[in-house]
Amino acid sequence: MARILVAYATKHHSTAEIAQAIADELRSRGHDADCLDVHDAHARGYDAVVLGSAVYMGRWRREARRFLSHESDILALTPFWVFSTGPVGEPKSAPDEDEKWLEPEAVIAQAEALNVREHVVFGGRMPRDPHGFIESSMARNTPEEFQDLRDWEQIRAWAAKIAAQL
Ligand SMILES: Cc1cc2nc3c(=O)[nH]c(=O)nc-3n(C[C@H](O)[C@H](O)[C@H](O)COP(=O)(O)O)c2cc1C
């Protein structure tokens, strides 16, 4: 059994729910998982770390970037995995062009330099409580069927793969 930290950075909670599903799957496979807001998380003392952030305007949340930098010494010595929560709305016909909007390049380069085991992108959910004009118009203009693109089967399968490697 491994002791695993699942740390998340969120604005509208959809990333927190993904992190919770990952932690639940890890626990169901016999591991001990703590699921924490990255503000309250430290990598020290864990056998493995899963770090996830929502992506806004092509960037990870500041607190997740900070965690990656501040905890880099420990992460370099600890198996760790990364996910980004992002895409919502109608799937694009040429998703490759948008790669840097899905996974911020600099963050992924930093994680790779620390030997991240894997980094993945999960579909996100439009804010249910949009703040300001941009969020409100994005939410209003997204058809209901594309508001929540989180694929729980995909998320749990990813966590199961992590569980098997520990
Ligand atoms: C103003 C705004 C900007 C966004 N920018 C991006 C982006 O650059 N890339 C992306 O993949 N998703 C983007 N999204 C989608 C969010 O990442 C998605 O809604 C995610 O699930 C939010 O996570 P949270 O609920 O944990 O905050 C954006 C959403 C909003 C409302």
From TrEMBL:
<protein>
    <submittedName>
        <fullName>Menaquinone-dependent protoporphyrinogen oxidase</fullName>
        <ecNumber>1.3.5.3</ecNumber>
    </submittedName>
</protein>
<dbReference type="InterPro" id="IPR052200">
    <property type="entry name" value="Protoporphyrinogen_IX_DH"/>
</dbReference>
<keyword id="KW-0560">Oxidoreductase</keyword>
<dbReference type="GO" id="GO:0010181">
    <property type="term" value="F:FMN binding"/>
</dbReference>
<dbReference type="InterPro" id="IPR026816">
    <property type="entry name" value="Flavodoxin_dom"/>
</dbReference>
<dbReference type="Pfam" id="PF12724">
    <property type="entry name" value="Flavodoxin_5"/>
</dbReference>
<dbReference type="InterPro" id="IPR008254">
    <property type="entry name" value="Flavodoxin/NO_synth"/>
</dbReference>
<feature type="domain" description="Flavodoxin-like">
    <location>
        <begin position="4"/>
        <end position="163"/>
    </location>
</feature>
<dbReference type="GO" id="GO:0070819">
    <property type="term" value="F:menaquinone-dependent protoporphyrinogen oxidase activity"/>
</dbReference>
<dbReference type="GO" id="GO:0006783">
    <property type="term" value="P:heme biosynthetic process"/>
</dbReference>
<dbReference type="InterPro" id="IPR029039">
    <property type="entry name" value="Flavoprotein-like_sf"/>
</dbReference>
